[in-house]
Give the backbone structure.
Amino acid sequence: MSMDENRRQVEELLGDTLGGELYQIVMSNPRDREKIEKVKIRPVMLKGSLLFQETAYVGSQVFHRNLEKGEAAERAVEYIAEDFKQCEIETAAERATVLVSKRGKINIKRKKICQEKGIDMAHNRVKSYILEEGRPVPFLVDLGVQTEEGRIVRAKYDKFKQINRFLEFIEDILPTLPKEKTLHIIDFGCGKSYLTFAVYYFLKELRGLDIRITGLDLKQDVIRRCNRLAEKYGYEGLRFLHGDISTYEGEEESQGQPKADMVITLHACDTATDYALAKAVEWGAEVILSVPCCQHEVNRQINCEELMPVLKYGLLKERMSALITDAVRANVLEENGYEVQILEFIDMEHTPKNILIRGIKRGEKRAREKKPVKGMTDFLHIETTLQKLLQ
């Protein structure tokens, strides 16, 4: 079969499926793994118009663009013909699989779905999340994210996506956590605890794990409300405490077990993140998930003549200081035996503070003879709180 015939087959398939009844198109198994790893195309309603959102996964980064129907079809054909060996197309009525052989031959299999699934694009979403739209979750209703019917409140849709994105990170690290005991998770700076409740619900209610979660925050009224909600839902393993991260000592270790198996710190301001990370390391936490915020410490200290062409601009200095702060944190965690990734938490369009530091405990502390981080911080005339705490 000629290449033109291959393309014609794919174009016909997309013509049948690319419309209001499309659920999603997923292209995977890339021919060149140095490029895009996976692409998803799904319909979205924007200002009353049907568009198709392309989501491309490149390493730890995710890129989005919205396309007209013709553009989406053209892009999909190009991806199948040039970049990927496999494509799954799912609609409300059928599922189609496109396989591309080493010689470029395309094989298409189509299967009808007996029970059609409804496609809801009302809130610019058709993706299947861990917490599903349309299925009411008590804490999401009480926190104002869902209606009692399970619909997502429009003003809270970004929060809903953020919650599900974070649960994906939790799902990824589950194999690394111990299974033979009760898992203890501490959420430093839990605030209104959207994510704290979500983690408990996901791990306890959906996964059936034996867990207990402690949320810590400085706001007493928030802590009281969260405890009332936890009691209302019967979440016996979830409790909230009033306290400061820097002075919190955790619970006593029992039978040699660490004080926390996982430490979460989301938007703990400035050096509060450093105190949380230091305690996680000292307690021997298996997993650390941190979304830093308001990194002012380095901004106040940084002084480097060679970088003055950048540092003389306040906005650039602020952003550079934030990136350097998180780079230091990541490297210090690595020096203390963690495998560290810097990941995008939510889309950059929502906030520039979208970095998540994920650390998984792997082994002994690294030798410190070369001190690469110390060399950089000396050059910049800075010393972070995390460095001081873990010296």
In short: The longest strand covers residues 49-58. Residues 51 and 68 are 5 Å apart (CA to CA). The mean pLDDT is 83.
